[in-house]
Amino acid sequence: MSNTIDTEEFRTLLTDERERLSKADKFLDDENPGTIEEELGEVGSGGTDNHLADTATATHDRELDAGIQEGVAQTLAEIDAALARIDAGTYGMCEMCDKPIGEERLRAIPWARFCIEDQRRVG
Ligand SMILES: [Zn+2]
């Protein structure tokens, strides 16, 4: 079975997405230059009645950003792996069963490693 996917088109998609995520990653770094302790210290010094609520909000925001940044870093790694698979000539094939992942699925997730069946299996 031949691989009919236009890998150069997906290389462009992956490269564009990589650039977009790199900027998002940098933005999150710039947004959070301090530590969580510094941020909580500022909130605590206010001494207002809703001190606890503010602290909870600051903690929540930080965890949210950290979660997003972690997701961004992981997706960047997946994109790099996908670009390496394009170079190796294995792009678009499931790493589990070696069958084509399917162009529709790749358009939704260009860095997909597995076909939809195996993705369900690995979670
Ligand atoms: Zn598979």
CATH architectural arrangement: Up-down Bundle
* Estimated share of beta-strand residues: under 5%
Query: What is the CATH homologous superfamily assignment?
Result: DksA, coiled-coil domain
Q: Outline, from the CA principal axes?
A: elongated
- Count of DSSP strands: 0
Helix % is 55-70%
Question: What is this structure's SSE topology?
Answer:
Blueprint: H1 7-31, H2 36-44, H3 51-88, H4 103-108, H5 116-122
Bound molecules: zinc ion.
Description:
The protein is mainly alpha-helical. The protein has a single domain, classed as Four Helix Bundle (Hemerythrin (Met), subunit A) (Up-down Bundle), CATH 1.20.120.910. It is 69% helix and 0% strand. It is built from 5 helices and no strands. It has helices at residues 7-31, 36-44, 51-88, 103-108, 116-122. Helix 1 packs antiparallel against helix 3. The longest helix has 38 residues, at 51-88. The protein is elongated, with a radius of gyration of 20 Å. The relative contact order is 0.15. The model has no long low-confidence stretch (mean pLDDT 84). The chain binds zinc ion. Zinc ion binds at residues 94, 96-97, 99, 114-115, 117-118.
